[in-house]
Design goal:
It is a single chain. The protein contains 16 helices and no strands. The protein is an all-alpha fold.
Length: about 350
Amino acid sequence: MNPKNDWLQALRALAALAVLFFHMAPHWALSPHLAPAQAWMHWGFSGVDVFFVLSGFVVYQTADKPGYSARRFLLRRGLRIYLGYWPVLLLTAALAWAASAWPPLGKAVRSALLLSPSLFDNWVPTAWSLTYELYFYLWIALVFLFAPRWRAPAMLAAFTALLLWNAAWYFWRYPTVQAGLQPARFALTGLGLEFLAGALWAHLRKRHACLHAAACAKWLALAGACCIVYGLGMGSQSPMYDRIEFMRAATFGVAGFGFLLVALAFSDWQWRTPRPLVALGDASYALYLLHPLLLDQSSHLRVRLPAGSLLALDAFLLALPVAISAISLLWFRWIEWPLFNRAAASGWARRLTGHPAR
């Protein structure tokens, strides 16, 4: 099993925090002192693009080892997604039931099974990206099953096909793309370019020792910094770079790849990773799923603050990300991780895979 890379965990934490601050912008807008921060908080959604790139890198590493089993791989990844997600969904359902705000049955089913990549079809707002994650895991499983000796060419061919398909529609049928009516929008999503870029880099990094060398790391870190500057700089030029998957991958996805390169360079230089970031990186899935619900619930506490006290409001809003991060850490340690480990070592998991899932 691949040892955990602390810098990648730190990157997970920063990506989750970016998404948290993105969703916290309307809350901070209530304070005249904190409202100016919305200018940079708006771009926090790009943390999702970092997650897709990072997921491609880590998931490929997980699969790329002796004794690979597609059944075992998919079972473990499925358990990791659903067992981290369902407790949050149950908490959301309980609060909705208490508030008599139950969704239509169809939406509830789609939400429970993660069948839709639409934000509006999911009860937990951030769960839309999990549908893509599950789909991308299937890609990796198919590559390892049907092209075991030609993994890199197969993934490169898939990357090229996605790039050409999305570029063709973007340049020749832009109104269709802008309206969200591009054929096979989910099946051939431009967001897949981010995942495949991470997976391809994992393949290259494992097979070329020079990519681990400290001398090479400085050039890769420089390349990563250039990707970050380009991706964030270009992506901030138009709101369409968020709404169109191909444009998003070509900007914020490039920035996400840049962050991956920089994190790997820090790891190769053996720089010490801040322990709080590593811990929060471990709990990043819980933070990603829980924070919209916690932000909504925070409004019940906010209305109890002393009326007209900006100091109390500022203190409350500044404490929000700290409190949400702390709750996510506890949720991970007491609920998410024990539940996953118990299920992965269960008898039915052994029967499905032929041996304990690890």
